[in-house]
Structure formats: C-alpha cells, structure tokens
Design brief:
alpha/beta, seven-stranded mixed sheet, 14 helices, 26% helix
Length: 582
C-alpha cells in the first residue's frame, strides 16, 4: 500500500479495450486445458451500503472478463447478514450498476434464496465428519484459535509462523449428536451465541482462516427477505463459495484480501462435492483523499459529516454521479489503472484527468458569474439589446452555436477588476482594456463605491467596431473575461466542492484520533446569488456544462427549488500531466 501508482495517460487506451492482464491469462489457460469450457463470472455485493468507486473496479473486471470471453456475469446480492441489510441498499446497488452501463439480464440472484440449499450442504458436511457444533463463546474461540503473525512487507497481509491453536472440548462430538444439535439450532432452541457450527479442518494450520472456521451462527434478527423464517445464518466464508458453485460460476474474481481465504473457499466446495468454481484475486482500488470502506462511509453518513450516501463529496457511485462524473470517465479510469496483484495508491488527480478528458469533448460551454460585480457600459445605446454568437463546444462542431443577449449592464466576476492592480494583472482596472468574450473590447473609465469603500460597479466604454473579435483587434488587449447580461441573466446557486479529506491518506491518524479528524472543513462552499446565461434556466438534472474560465458544473439532481442548483464537478486546470512527469 506504500506504492504509488502512476498510470501514464494513453490516447490508444479506450474504454472496453482488451489489455494484457493476469486474469485473462488464467482464463485462457483454463479454457485451453479444458478445466472450463465457458466463462461465467459474478458481482456479489452485500446490500449493507451504497457502492463506491472501488466496487466499480470489481464489477468492471467481472463484467468485462465475461464479455471478453463470450460469457455471462451474474448479479448476486450476498445477503446473509440480516443486521445490516435492507431493500433500499439492493435498489441502490442495481441502479448504480445499471447507470455504469452494465446489464445482468435475467441473472439476478440472492444468497438468501439459497438458505435451504446451504443448510443441506452443512448437514452433508456434518455427515462426513467434517463439521461439529461448538459451545465455545466468541471470545473463547479466538483464544483457542491463536493469534496470527502478519507480514505486510509484500504489500498485502500474509500469515507467517503462527503457534498452533487448541482443539475445542466439543470438537469430537459424534455425527448423530452434531446433526441433532444443528437441527435444534435451526429450531430456535438455543440462545443467540450459545452454539455455532464449525468446519473441522486443522487447528494447527499456519493459516488462521483454516482453523475450524465458523459455518453458522445463531442470530434472532429479522431478515429483510426471509423475515423470521431463520434464526441461524451462514457465515460469508461458507455461503460465498457454495453460492458460486450453485450458480456454476467458473471464475470468482475478488479483491486481494480474500487471497488467504482461497484455501477455505476450495475446501468447502470440495467437501460439498459441488461445481469447482475457481477464485482469482486482484488488487483493490485505493485512491488518495478517499476512504474505500462502506463501514467508514456509513459513519460519515450517520454522523452527518455529509448530507447522505449521494453527497457529491462521497466516492460512492451515486455521489460521483451527482457531482457530474460520467460512466465513461469512470470506466476509462478503471481501465487505465489496470489489473494487478500488487496493492498501490492511485492519485485522485488521475481520476480527475480521465473526467476532464471526457467532459471536454461532451460538455456545452456557457458563461456564468459566481461572484458578481456590475459592469456598466456608459456609451451603450440606451435600451438596446444585441445578440452575440457563441460556440457551444469547440471540440465538437455538431454541437453548433447559440445566441446570447448583450446589453449595457453586465455581470462580471469580482476578481476581474482591481482598483490598484498587482503586477502582471491584465484584466480590468482604470485605463485598461479587455475583450468581453464573444462581445466587444471595453475600456475601464472608473468605478462606483459604497459608503464602506467596497466597489459596487465598474464603468467602461466599448468600441462598437470590435464585436466578435479579429486578430488585429485582439492585439489591442491582453485578456478576455466572461460576463452575462444583467437584465437577462438567471439566478443560480453554485455549490463549490473540494476534496472531502484534507490529507492524502485519511486513515493514517495519530493515536487517539479518528479518521474524521482529517476531514476538510472547506470541502463545500455554497454561493447562493450567482448569475448565468438564460439557457441555464432550462437545464435538466444531470446536464453537464463547462462554465467558461470556472470549471465543469452539473445541474443538481437532488434539488427542486425555484433557483437551479449547479454542483462544481472539477476545475479546468489539469494537474495530472505535472504529476505524471515526476
């Protein structure tokens, strides 16, 4: 995790394009050897939160590999933990995966539909003498199992020399007794936590995962789909491989933290005598200034550090969508990050680079003034309104042009005027001239002040021969500024978003502090009295624009007030090229 990944932007890397990666090589070998004759993957999120950009990498890989080899990909909700799961999370997951451009057709499954099947497999393993009912408490179980020595020098957790654990006093219960106790667990005869069903493997195994792991626990929790039909629930390490096997998944693609669980994955499938799905692990996505855990994202929501799962500062798919990200930009980002077996940290600037690359080609240019200052053209013909022609997108001729009203009273950005200009300041100040974008050259003749000394208006004259601009006229000025006609402008609210965390690695905290201490107090600024071209009054939810000179913005999808709200997606300046050169 200390490695910093620096992908090099490449024009020939396109969304969906095949790249050489170790997973593809594994799959090719499996098909060539006859281990499998087809490819069938799955994306198995737990419905206990909303998906984030890290999940994008997971389902991008699963769906892409299936497509690449002419196979199929299932969507399965791994919903065997009733305390934290509900239908709202299921609907959010399905909505986000579809928005990202993936379709699982009729291959939608729920692990909770397999409860009876899983129970039957557990009975089968008990009958083979490979599982037993244990009376140890959770604390006692940890003590008997022992403590792992963990080596993280290779970039991921690895088990090193670990002292053997101890067998449970109930490990040698007979098959009939275990079958009876397990049936009574299902019938609800025992209290929560009183008994568990454990696999009988090896308490001296160097991998702690293999030291008689729990298969079932007693939990009297109402399940959002099965209600109170069950009071015992299968553990993830048991249900996951067998759910894969039941769906005849050929390649179970998962993140690197499950690597040490692979022997157990194979053990359960082998003892159950089910379809031999194969688990392959890849490095998860880690990104600067971001937390990639539903647990920590939920804390941000519950503690009101953000407005919800879809807050535009969140790395959730819904948050990115509301921020103005596009599915194509996210897919290109994941594609260029690539697939590897080594954990690394990707700079968030590279995600922003991929976003700008997409938005620059697709976003309509408009003008908006966020911090308005009145500009009065004193020699403008009274009552006259002209229209000037503007280009909608210089990167796309088919986007066409538009007409913008121009009058003698305009709004400009407050920092486009200085009473006493600093060195190398080329915008408006007394005696200086600038071009008004798509309009005329104006010369500052003075300004008005309020009693408190603040500037309330800038006064100018315009040259009527300079409309639209030509090479000769443009030599007369060193700066072009944007504007909107005051009588015709629409009021907007702009929400200026910055990184949610002030540090690159939010989870690196000093003892006694929480990761929330690294939150950026300036991550949101709300500008309630901004002005924009008339066309922005008709903008629809999720419509994206480039506000010239200011950045990319999107019409917010979560607001329904009379004043349209626009969220800042990302600024115009791209720092990635500078980062990539280092």
């Amino acid at each position: 995790m200390e490695n910093t990944f620096v992908p090099q932007p490449s024009a020939d890397q396109t969304d969906g394009g095949e790249a050489s990666d170790f997973i593809s090589e594994f799959i090719r070998e499996d098909l060539k050897s006859g281990r499998f004759t087809r490819v069938h993957t799955r994306f198995p999120p737990e419905p206990n939160g909303w998906l984030h950009i890290g999940h994008c990498k997971a389902f991008y890989i699963s769906f892409t590999m299936a497509e690449r080899f002419g196979g199929k990909c299932n969507l399965r909700l791994d919903d065997t933990n009733p305390e934290k799961e509900n239908y709202s999370y299921v609907e959010a997951i399905k909505r986000d995966v579809r928005w990202m451009g993936y379709d699982w057709e009729d291959r939608e499954y729920f692990a909770s539909d397999y409860f009876e099947y899983l129970y039957g497999i557990a009975v089968k393993i008990i009958k083979k003498g490979k599982a037993y009912v244990d009376d140890l408490t959770e604390t006692e179980m940890r003590e008997y199992r022992g403590t792992a020595a963990v080596d993280k020098t290779a970039g991921r957790a690895a088990i090193t020399d670990t002292p053997p654990g101890r067998n449970s006093p109930w490990r040698e219960r007979g098959v009939e007794e275990n079958l009876d106790l397990f049936a009574r667990m299902r019938a609800g005869e025992f209290a929560d936590g009183a008994k568990t069903l454990r696999a009988k493997i090896d308490m001296a195994h160097p991998n702690l995962v293999m030291r008689d792991p729990v298969m079932y626990r007693i939990r009297r929790e109402t399940h959002y789909r099965t209600s109170d039909s069950w009071c015992i629930y299968p553990m993830y390490d048991f249900q996951h491989p067998l759910s894969d096997a039941k769906e005849r998944i050929t390649h179970s693609l998962c993140s690197l933290e499950f690597e040490i669980h692979r022997p157990l994955y194979d053990w359960f499938i082998r003892e159950a005598e089910e379809f031999p799905s194969r688990q392959i692990e890849f490095a998860r996505l880690n990104m600067t200034r971001t937390v990639m855990s539903k647990r920590w994202l939920l804390k941000l929501v519950e503690d009101n550090h953000v407005s919800g799962w879809d807050d535009p500062r969140m790395p959730t798919i819904a948050g990115l969508r509301r921020r103005g990200y596009t599915p194509r930009a996210i897919r290109n980002f994941v594609s260029q990050v690539g697939i590897s077996k080594t954990d690394s940290m990707v700079d968030i600037a590279f995600l922003e680079y991929c976003l700008r690359e997409d938005l620059n080609k697709t976003s309509r240019r408009v003008m908006a003034v966020l911090r308005p200052l009145k500009l009065i053209i004193d020699n403008w013909p009274a009552g006259t309104v002209e229209e000037v022609q503007a280009v909608n997108n210089p990167e796309d001729e088919s986007a066409g042009k538009r007409m913008i009203p121009f009058s003698g009273e305009l709004w400009i950005e407050r920092d486009d005027f200085e009473e006493v200009p600093p060195p190398k300041y080329f915008r408006l100040y007394p005696g200086n001239s600038v071009r008004l974008r798509y309009g005329y050259i104006v010369t500052c003749t003075g300004f008005d002040k309020a009693p408190d000394g603040s500037v309330t208006a800038v006064r100018c004259t315009y040259d009527p021969e300079t409309k639209g601009g030509n090479a000769q006229d443009n030599k007369k000025v060193k700066s072009t500024i944007h504007w909107v006609s005051a009588p015709h402008a629409v009021q907007i609210e702009a929400r200026m978003y910055d990184y949610l965390f002030a540090v690159e690695k939010p989870m690196d905290v000093e003892p006694g502090k929480a990761f929330t201490d690294n939150l950026n107090s300036g991550s949101l600024e709300v500008i309630r009295h901004a002005w924009a071209e008339p066309c922005l009054g008709q903008a629809v939810a999720e419509e994206r624009f480039q506000f010239e000179r200011l950045g990319y913005f999107v019409r917010d999808s979560g607001e329904g007030g009379s004043v349209p709200v626009f969220n800042k997606t990302v600024g115009l300046r791209d720092t990635w090229a500078k980062i990539a050169k280092k």
